[in-house]
Description:
Elements: E1 4-13, E2 16-19, H1 31-38, H2 52-58, E3 59-63, E4 76-78, H3 79-88, E5 109-111, E6 116-122, H4 123-130, H5 137-152, E7 157-165
Parallel strand pairs: 3-4
Antiparallel strand pairs: 1-2, 1-7, 3-5, 6-7
Amino acid sequence: MGRDIAMFVEYVDADGVHAWAEDAISIPRDYRLFAALDGRSAPRGLPLDLSSDVFEQYFLFVVDDASASSYRGFEYVTLAEADAMIAAGTAHRPPPGYVKYNTTSPLGYVSGPDRNAANWLWSSEVRERTSAIVSSPQWAVLVDVLDSIERRIAGARARIVFWYSG
């Protein structure tokens, strides 16, 4: 069984944090690249200022049966399912202090059970860790996107947010 990566581009500017796109960036499975991104330290987890778009890719809404129909289009679980996933150690709640904007869940959130080793890196860290890796053309374009964001959006810092599944 392989390990896949879900990767997102975000940028932080004077107006807050923004997702570059609502969906994950498609990066082919490349274990040398994954090892370079992970570095020699434990994953940082998700940034506390995570964008709402990326938050909704990582966390599931926890809802009661009566309000489930209001959450069509979102991934959600019942409170009993969320509690069972947490008890089994396959999911966790968001970090304390995280503020969710946009659509909110009445009973909170829980990570998806197949989302592991969440991490994030600023664009400078991405370049440092992966400069010696010759990876896919998609990876080269992604690094160009990070650089372009920082050149074209005044005061912006770009980063990747990622986790593994599988």
